[in-house]
Amino acid sequence: xxxxxxxxxxxxxxxxxxxxxxxxxxxxxVSLFWYQQALGQGPEFLTYFQNEAQxxxxxLPSDRFFAERPEGSVSTLKIQRTQQEDSxxxxxxxxxxxxxxxxFFGPGTRLTVL
Amino acid sequence: xENVEQHPSTLSVQEGDSAVIKCTYSDSASNxxxxxxxxxxxxPQLIIDIRSNVGEKKDQRIAVTLNKTAKHFSLxITETQPEDSxxxxxxxxxxxxxxxxxxKLTFGQGTILTVHP
Lengths: 114, 117
What we know:
The structure holds 2 protein chains of 2 kinds. By secondary structure, chain A is mostly beta strands. Chain A has no helices and 11 strands. Chain A is 0% helix and 48% strand. The radius of gyration of chain A is 13 Å and the shape is globular. Chain B is built from no helices and 11 strands. Chain B has strands at 4-7, 10-14, 19-25, 32-38, 45-51, 56-59, 62-67, 72-77, 86-93, 105-107, 111-116. In chain B, strands 2, 4, 5, 9, 10 and 11 form a 6-stranded mixed beta sheet that branches. Chains A and B meet through β4, β5, β9 and β10 of A and β4, β5 and β10 of B.
């Protein structure tokens, strides 16, 4: 059984460019989370989807960050006009149920903004 | 919001020794406490978790204890092996305003565990 996959694994962007990061959760998982992990730190919550509904986007650092999950499966995190402080690993996690399930993490996308 | 503090930031032990990592949390409403292991270049992997209605949980060489009164929880690894070397994160989840929870996690800062052969 495939786990959570993310693509690309590495992304280098010039400051000001837009980027799109993809997450393929485990099939059938209702919940999907995005986290941002700065170097040497723990992951920090960005946003949460229950199926296609974005129920919590309180962790998105600015309006340059946008996430969607239009069909309740694959999700995309988009960052517009990237800044150097956006450099981090972006982790996606999915969970079978809402609220009480184990979160399975993908390998992450390492974004470097030059 | 919830704040999770984790200590120590680095821990070095000899193979076969025990390792203990401690975390404290700020929000007494937190009700779920997972521990994750993260190896270089990989995403976090759940190794054990505990819910607020339980004081201790054990799985082979790994155990977690929870003290709700003091708002702290700990990870215990016995008979450590070199393959236990990794970064370990504690986390806490609090219910939403309505009392339900969708599982949003607040993580500690991580502990780099090194097990020397």
